[in-house]
Description:
Blueprint: E1 4-7, E2 10-12, E3 15-17, H1 21-24, E4 30-35, H2 42-52, E5 58-62, E6 70-75, E7 80-84, E8 100-104, H3 111-116, H4 118-156, H5 159-173, E9 185-187, E10 191-194, E11 197-200, E12 207-212, H6 217-232, E13 237-241, E14 250-255, E15 260-265, E16 277-280, H7 287-292, H8 294-332, H9 335-353
Parallel strand pairs: 1-5, 4-7, 4-8, 9-13, 12-15, 12-16
Antiparallel strand pairs: 2-3, 5-6, 6-7, 10-11, 13-14, 14-15
Helix pairs in contact: 2-9, 4-8, 5-6
Amino acid sequence: MENNIFFLGGTSPNGFKTRFGDTIFDTDYHTYIIKGGPGTGKSSLMKKLAAAFPDEEKELYYCSSDPDSLDAVVFVKSGIVFVDGTAPHTFDPEFPGAVQQLVDLGSCWNGKLLQKNKPEIISKTADYLRFHNICRRYVTALSSVAEDTAQIGKLSLNDEKLDGFTERFAKKLLPKKQEHDESIILYRQLSALTPKGYVTNVPEGYTIYLLNDNLYYGSEAFLRKFTDIALNKGYDVCVSQITILNGNKFEHIFIPELKLALMSATPVNNLDIAEKQVINFKRFYDKNIIRQRKMRIRFNEGAVKELRDEAVNALVNAKAEHDKLEAYYIKSIDFDKVNSIAAELESELKQVLR
């Protein structure tokens, strides 16, 4: 069965940001919080569990610091969750045993061997954190520059024209529902800054509308209004926020029931999708105001690109240090014990999923 692919969260000016706690602390779910150091097999364990049940509908959440590493798996129909509960996304049980339970991979390592390498582990951890702090500083600067452009967008936006378009567009795309349950917003992170650049997981099998907007403001206002209309019509809406900008700005939304996605393309993400329909937001901005600030907008676009590239480079260096750190833990781990824990969890899952 096709899996839904997301990021657990992403870098922001205030550190790592995630909304996954909404799932972990939802008492309708049962969550296994996996604890252990780097390289102790958390991601591999979750990949094994996901692969063991190919016919189950799953949400797979990857790590923005290492997009090849899995941070969480949600078995959708059963409400079973497995998540990496270590920094920077530290999670601990709120209702131990009843709603959340711990999986301790620290029980599988050789503590004496780790203590023997204590100076190196402390040093590599410091280097890893230093590069993440560098990344955060670049992201903070990027956020300020992008916000300056967004303020130009706010000043020049024709709100009445955009509102009218949004209402007509929503009427066209959102069929009436005679009866419906109370609709909800779900937060699912499609995009994140990673060592591979700014990466977006485009929903497969969806009709995609790409919102081209070099001023940010209009597309975000459109996504919020469209979300409100969809909720009022009884549709659940999944919202992907842009973590590297301050606040809780909408970057993309998608409606699973309709297989419909509205995704913004801005100087931050440079998003381009082969199979899409395009809405150009230039039509909603006052041309005279934009013309007067043309040089400032152009400068900001260049600055955003440079700052984004430097932030990515810092993440590349952070991952390199993390890989060195992992090597010490990999040497200390008894992976037979890890595999035994994985087998026990798989057996528990079979009882629930069968």
